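Posted in: Structural Biology > Protein-Ligand Complexes

Title: Requesting predicted complex, adenosine-5'-diphosphate in pocket

I'd be grateful if someone could produce the 3D structure tokens for the following input. Sequence and ligand are given below.
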Amino acid sequence: MLLTLDDVSKSFGGLMAVRQLSLAVEQGEILGLIGPNGSGKTTAFNLISGFLKPDSGGIKLQGKDITRLSPPKICASGIARTFQMVKPFSHLTALQNVLVGRLYGCSPAKTQAEAREECYRILDFVGLAGKHQILARNLTLVDRKRLELARALAAKPKLLLLDELMAGLNPTETDAAMRLVRSIRDSGITVIMVEHIIKAVLGMCDRVVVISAGEKIAEGSAQEVVNNQKVIEAYLGKPRYA
Ligand SMILES: Nc1ncnc2c1ncn2[C@@H]1O[C@H](COP(=O)(O)OP(=O)(O)O)[C@@H](O)[C@H]1O
Ligand SMILES: [Mg+2]
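-- Reply #1 --
Done. Output follows.
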């Protein structure tokens, strides 16, 4: 297993945002993490990436306990993430934003020149060719999302956590993002994606874990979970996602 969560819980005051969550991610898969708003998906990502510490339970990456490591150490051991609320350095160019990822990631580049070359390639790969010098604050939403992905990829992760990467994209942009995530996986990076766009979940995920009120309520293939009665009641049945 690449990543395992073992009985992980996290409360905020009286609210148990993540409740005894256990899951395992295999090397090379795309795992979907879905559930209603407020069910604890982003909190789970915050726990995996070290921005929050669990109250109990453990997290392992390739068998090594990472539960108490700081976010930079977790990044250095091979986990990168995107943020649901994209957070580029708005006063820096697209290239400079990705350079930050490349110089402080899992296996930082040896020289500025090498980092720059790699960042050009990554920017081209995510669809930002020709936009290297644009300030992040002047990019459109879809381009800021591409930049967010590029910054995470620049860290050269083994495991990539995507938090609602496709939210706000139109159908054409969503299809392009799906192709991009598939080719990221094909390049050897394991992916956990939090996503509300069911078409993307069905089209991409090898396996899906469903959480509701912080608890895992189902797990299986995308087809299995979308036909699961508990999942329909807790999540899919709601008109917003019908
Ligand atoms: N830092 C925090 N402080 C207090 N409550 C939080 C914090 N982060 C998340 N929550 C609460 O935890 C629950 C789960 O939130 P979140 O993980 O963001 O859900 P999701 O990503 O599934 O929509 C929500 O009720 C949310 O309000
Ligand atoms: Mg969220």
